[in-house]
Design brief:
This protein is an alpha/beta fold. The chain has helices at residues 27-38, 52-57, 65-71, 91-96, 114-122, 162-180, and strands spanning 19-23, 42-46, 61-62, 74-77, 102-105, 128-131, 151-153. The chain has six helices and seven strands.
């Protein structure tokens, strides 16, 4: 539904045959690659440490960063936020994308430079942006993304399920029990 309450008046597109670019082929990125392949998409992936073997094992083609953006019909972000990934997607990367491409960010908001993103959307350099994560959460009511017709925004709650919470709490209990037993698990060194 449009912000003014009206229904969609535009045409969509099929995913079959389209290129699914995945930035970060870890646990979630791998699942997204499999889902994309099941829908007939061609998954390609890039991250700084991704090897061709790991990409191939997970049903994706490893490509360079620039190629990931150039070939994308849909680019989905699945990377941790770190000093290396903060602002990783800026004006240069958005400018390499097709004007018909969609950018999806369910990872961390600051990976995408908001100023560059807003410019790319307003100038129709990309077709749209979908996100459930933002640099400031909750997203302020006056934030320009809220008024952007090419943006689909949801609150950062995709992980809020009964199953996920059961897993989180069971993991915490196991960790505490192991620590009390003198055999800590999940220790970072």
């Amino acid at each position: 539904m449009r912000p003014d309450g009206g229904w969609q008046e535009t045409l969509g597109f099929d995913l079959e045959g389209k290129t699914l670019s995945i930035l970060g082929l870890g646990n979630l990125g791998t699942r997204v690659a499999r889902i994309g392949a099941a829908l007939g998409m061609r998954p390609i992936a890039w991250s700084e440490n991704l090897t061709e073997e790991r990409a191939r094992q997970n049903g994706a083609e490893r490509v360079g960063k620039d190629e990931l953006f150039r070939r994308a019909d849909v680019l989905s972000i699945h990377s941790v936020l770190s000093s290396r990934t903060r602002g990783l997607i800026g004006a240069r990367e958005l400018g390499q994308m097709k004007p018909t491409a969609l950018l999806v960010n369910t990872s961390r908001g600051p990976i995408v430079e908001e100023t560059a993103l807003l410019a790319a959307l307003r100038e129709k350099k990309i077709a749209g942006y979908a996100a459930d994560t933002f640099a400031t959460e909750p997203l302020p009511a006056e934030h320009p993304l809220r008024k952007e017709p090419r943006a689909l925004l949801t609150p950062h709650l995709g992980y809020v399920t009964a199953e996920t919470y059961r897993g989180f709490y069971a993991g915490m209990v196991s960790t505490i029990e192991a620590w009390l037993a003198g055999a800590p698990i999940g220790v970072l060194t």
